[in-house]
Amino acid sequence: MKYLSWDETLFRDAEVFDPEYLPDELIFRDQQLERISSNLKPALHNSRPINMLCLGPPGTGKTSCVKLIFKEIAEKVESIIPVYVNCQLVSSNHGIFARIFEKVYGYPLPSYGIPFPKLYASILKKLVEKEKVLIVALDDINLLFDDKVMNEAIYAILKAHEDVEKVKTGVIAIGTDLKFAAKLDSRVGSIFHPDEIYFPPYGVYELFEILKQRCEIGFYKGAIEDDVIEKVAELTFEAGDIRVGLYTLKMAGVEAERRGSRKIEIEDVLKVFEGSRKVFLRKCVAMLDETEKELLKLIYSSEELTTGELFEKFKEKRKLSYTKFYNLLTKLENLRAIDLVFKNLKKGRTRVVMKRFEDNVILDALREA
Predict the structure, then answer these.
(1) Contact at 8 Å (CB) between 5 and 260?
(2) What distances in angstroms separate CA 254 from CA 16, 62, 173, 259, 262, one per listed residue?
(3) What is the secondary structure of 228-243 as a DSSP string?
(4) CATH 3.30.70.270 is the classification of domain 30-198
(5) Rounded Cα–Cα distance for residues 226 and 65 (Å)
(6) Percentage of the chain with pLDDT > 70?
(7) In 10 A of CB 345, how many CB atoms?
(8) Please, which pLDDT band fits residue 115 given cuts at 50, 70 and 90?
(9) Cα–Cα distance between 36 and 45 in angstroms, integer?
(10) Which CATH number does the domain 202-285 belong to among 1.10.8.60, 3.30.420.150, 3.30.360.10, 3.40.640.10?
(11) Is residue 185 scored above 60 in pLDDT?
(12) What global pTM score does this model have?
């Protein structure tokens, strides 16, 4: 039978293609998993773990690796309290420690709130009582609205042993900004000393194997052939984010079902790919604050500019230092909205802001955000 009946589906488990899905095994990340695991081993013996900085482009497995290790700790290790904080959603020092409080005490912070000094002291007191080591993963830390918040959060976690004897803590910072360490102030730099673990972009072959693994779990046998997965892998490599590929597979399955087909074809992939990329683009734009959105709009409303030329134009809209301006540019590059490349111009070698998308694609995403 060629066509699906009304109650049939191609999906064994559609959630497999969601960004939040955590597989039991992460292929092509053995080295990174081993480094993370090794750095946490001292905590198994009630000692402070080695702090870490997990760096790499979006969609390279940083979050999944940390979450997989934290899942294993939660299931098998009693001496460690792992706390995962998404800094896209939690952007204040108090908010970060509210998440820590919830994990340490087992229930949320009271709705009426607690002053930060009291909140901080109560967490440290409970850690000593339980004789547990606290490990906090701060994901997308470079997306915190203020570098000051980032520094305060890391410092507060790591200086805990100075405030309360026998408290042991560690930090895993996860980000896309390869110059992250330069944003740490002297206080934090003197106590953080992270082991930097790099997550390189996946190649086309690696993407194919990862996507094929998900298809084997997410679709019924025979629903998709390798040549279709190969096409998705190629498109995903161009997009630079595996989450785009996963969403494309999901929507291609939906499109095939809409046609009543028992098999996903390349035509289904091509039909949904651009929409899949736009969905993730809108999500990236939604993460930006008003200043960052204004800068992105200026870039995509202008012809090619050097960073210096762009700074002069943006100064007319917002008064800010060049350092702050360049930090904004770096964030847009980390989100893969732009590229900063060196070019040899008549006045010498300089950095140019290159667009990664058509103007209307970004401007539409900004309007929708």
Answers:
(1) no
(2) 14, 28, 36, 9, 11
(3) HHHHHHHHHHHHT-HH
(4) no
(5) 26
(6) 97
(7) 10
(8) very high
(9) 16
(10) 1.10.8.60
(11) yes
(12) 0.85
